[in-house]
Q: What sequence folds into this?
């Protein structure tokens, strides 16, 4: 091992590190943010899905819930991510291609029809129009008799990584940051259990960053969000406990586990020493993980089952709070029902 290097070109060390003083659930949370971790409760198995119409997506969500998933994860199409209606000329040929098209609150009603929003958590991968989509979700839940105080879930709401890795931004950086900090403030009052942002290294990693670069860029963005909120007059301990993160998990199992552990440790120190956080919850790096789409192959797609299993194991050993496992056929098309079920079963096997 001594002569081998990680994907980030860091030499592996064959010298054991003394972590006897570091316990899960205690600062700096290297071993995990909860003392009992998965012995008391497994991670949330949250499968990412979205199809052309709200009705199609709703049917897949119901299949996943019936199969045992504990959380929904909504993929929106590119026009929705960019704030365009489906009938806009600029949306031509992109409607419903990489996720579900949501133009109105009626679409949101159809998307979540018959789903127990007070019993499952929902993650929405939406950034520039995050405030609008979140409000639609809240209104649909309230129509079902579910108050905002009972809703759990996450909006991605991370526009800085859009400038770095994806490009689905609408507004310039400063107005975008103001919208994000306004959401922090709104959710503190109206949706206190909601994760107000998912600061995302996943897309940065998929765009070519090494594990070290993924964490560096992600934590830099996180610092910018915390500073913007503090500058807007928010107390760090009022909003920081609802910050969450999103990382990729690759097949380099040992390095990925180390990456997650290091990220928790670094973030805890940043929040305590740089921003003066007093609450331990403000110092805890809570994160969702998705297995690496960039490592899927269209050739011999069944082999992706093995890749995804290793990647999922790395996320679990690294202490993730929720996990999406890619379907083996995603390099070819939107996942089939069989492939999506197998992806969920992969997590359930690891959990047992």
A:
């Amino acid at each position: 091992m001594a002569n081998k290097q990680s994907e980030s070109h860091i030499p592996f060390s064959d010298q054991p590190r003394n972590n006897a003083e570091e316990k899960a659930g205690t600062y700096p949370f290297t071993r995990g943010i909860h003392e009992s971790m998965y012995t008391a409760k497994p991670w949330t198995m949250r499968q990412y899905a979205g199809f052309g119409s709200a009705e199609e997506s709703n049917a897949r969500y119901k299949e996943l819930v019936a199969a045992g998933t504990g959380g929904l994860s909504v993929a929106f199409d590119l026009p929705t991510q960019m704030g365009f209606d489906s009938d806009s000329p600029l949306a031509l040929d992109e409607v419903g291609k990489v996720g579900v098209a949501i133009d109105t609150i009626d679409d949101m009603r159809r998307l979540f029809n018959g789903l127990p929003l007070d019993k499952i958590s929902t993650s929405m991968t939406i950034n520039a129009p995050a405030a609008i989509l979140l409000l639609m979700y809240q209104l649909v839940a309230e129509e079902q008799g579910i108050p905002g105080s009972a809703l759990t879930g996450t909006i991605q709401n991370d526009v800085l990584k859009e400038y770095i890795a994806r490009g689905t931004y609408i507004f310039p950086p400063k107005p975008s940051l103001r919208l994000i900090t306004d959401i922090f403030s709104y959710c503190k009052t109206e949706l206190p259990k909601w994760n107000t942002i998912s600061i995302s290294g996943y897309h940065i990693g998929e765009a070519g960053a090494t594990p070290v670069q993924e964490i560096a860029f992600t934590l830099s963005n996180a610092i910018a969000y915390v500073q913007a909120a503090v500058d807007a007059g928010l107390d760090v301990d009022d909003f920081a406990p609802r910050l969450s993160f999103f990382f990729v998990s690759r097949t380099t199992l040992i390095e990925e586990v180390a990456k997650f552990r290091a990220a928790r440790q670094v973030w805890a120190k940043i929040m305590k020493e740089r921003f003066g956080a007093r609450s331990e919850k403000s110092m805890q790096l809570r994160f969702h993980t998705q297995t690496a789409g960039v490592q899927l192959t269209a050739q011999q797609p069944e082999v992706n089952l093995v890749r995804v299993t290793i990647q999922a194991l790395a996320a679990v050993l690294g202490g993730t709070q929720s996990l999406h496992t890619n379907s083996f056929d995603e390099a070819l098309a939107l996942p089939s029902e069989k492939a999506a079920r197998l992806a969920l079963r992969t997590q359930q096997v690891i959990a047992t």
Remarks:
- The longest helix spans residues 253-274.
- Residues 39-351 form a domain with the TIM Barrel fold (CATH 3.20.20.240).
- The longest strand covers residues 243-249.
- The chain has one domain: 39-351.
